[in-house]
Amino acid sequence: MHYSVFSVLAQALRGQRDWKPQWRDAAPKPEYDVVIVGGGGHGLATAYYLAKEHGITNVAVVEKNHVGSGNVGRNTTIVRSNYLLPGNIPFYEHSMKLWEGLEQDINYNAMVSQRGVLNLFHSDAQRDSYARRGNAMRMAGIDAELLDREGVRGMVPFIDFDNARFPVKGGLLQRRGGTVRHDAVAWGYARAASDRGVDIIQNCAVTGIRRENGRVTGVETSRGFIKAKKVALSVAGSSSLLAAMVDMRLPIESHVLQAFVSEGIKPLIDCVMTFGAGHFYVSQSDKGGLVFGGDIDGYNSYAQRGNLATIEDVMEGGMALWPGLGRLRLLRHWGGIMDMSMDGSPIIDRTDIGGLYLNAGWCYGGFKATPAAGFCFAHTIARDEAHPHSAAYRLDRFATGHVIDEKGMGAQPNLH
Amino acid sequence: MRIRCPYCGERDNGEFTYLGDAGGARPDGMGTDAAAMHDYVYLRDNRAGVHRELWYHGAGCRSWLVVTRDTRTHEISDVTSAREAGLARRNSGTTSGEAA
């Protein structure tokens, strides 16, 4: 369906009767070239780029629930490419560039808003650390600005600059970072992939992965067996459960991350802001609610809901930075299940099983990676080799010592 | 979620710190190969269901505990001290017990 100001006006006059579903709700065919397991942002983007970049359109995306019901609809919508390590920088910058052209590419309003991501620092040592990160970004051609205290005050005058323990000394700003409407990303990629011939099969849970002679032959699902030449797993949160179907153990623990939204208020904060002394990040949605979050709960969970101790911790972080938050009421909070990897970085790779591909381990940073993860994963599936931008995200890097540990936490997934 | 500490009684989970799966026994680092150490350090079963895991009661008695919990519901079915669990493993002579 074509969207334009004319179609909106015409539908308004006709009582909005003629809008059609944005993508085909397909039933499974007996066989596909590629079956992508997981109809989230990453799976749908992978299907889209398989069709667009590699001309592979005999593709199914199988989703156990409905499109957008998992983490793509549960995140805090932040996009950025402010990374330090060489393995991460080109990948996330590629993602940022794809975000910048996404709406024209898929002809869908994803409300890409480059409102700036501001990371605050609170000590001299932290300023050094952020300056180093900013320099690494600029050397790679990515925008970064180190703001002093007055620069920060110009952007967010309402925070507590003179907190006794954590005075605000300045911030690292990436102006090209910002937010994207998360649901629209899922819907837009679904529509664009479906238009190119991809079957999107909802309410179809994968219950097994069939193998013959060390090669996958298809997936068992709640809607019957689907034959496939290649099977691609893109099921963050449940990666270990799918891998267990082919007797693989992954360097991943599943943890619950909670997010929050306040009641709607008038425009107050026009950027994404993060607290440097605790884990707290906040932005304002277009409906007016403050969207914020912090640490994961820290224990293995598949429950999609968290506990009050973490909620209290996030609120304390928010109040330390921005005491005015205390006057707001919390509207909703929810949880999603994260693939917490052993070095805090993701995996986009082939596996030892022929025709089986893995996109996993996104920790709580998968949303911003959606376009590049789809782009690079599609490349890996189509050509059986890594895309240069995702070449460091190997499954065997823990055995070979090539870990990508941005936070330097070691093999302790709940600390990444 | 509340954890019934064997020494302090039922306490809020905010008093505890999580370490992880209590299932794997650490291989003898001098006597094993790199692949076995890799599996121990990096790979996890990550089960959806009953999970034996190590918690530390840092804001209470400072004991290490082995908690048996369902990762789908957060329901806790058993809590023992890690010391007792470790002694039980040693006495039973098994090698695949918890790393207490």
TrEMBL record, chain A:
Q: Which domain of life is it from?
A: Bacteria
As for subcellular location, the record says:
Cytoplasm
Q: Which InterPro entries match?
A: FAD-dep_OxRdtase, FAD/NAD-bd_sf, SoxB
Question: What's the encoding gene here?
Answer: soxB
Residue ranges of the FAD dependent oxidoreductase domain? 33-378
Give the main localization category.
cytoplasm
Query: Where do transmembrane segments lie in this chain?
Result: none
> What name appears for this protein in its UniProt entry?
Sarcosine oxidase subunit beta
Where in this chain does the entry annotate a coiled-coil region?
none
The record's keywords, sorted A to Z, are:
Cytoplasm, Nucleotide-binding, Oxidoreductase
TrEMBL record, chain B:
List, as start-end ranges, the regions of compositional bias called Polar residues.
91-100
**Which Pfam families does the entry link to?**
SoxD
Residue numbers spanned by region Disordered: 81-100
Q: Which InterPro entries match?
A: SoxD (IPR006279), SoxD_sf (IPR038561)
Protein name per its UniProtKB record: Sarcosine oxidase subunit delta
Gene encoding this chain? soxD
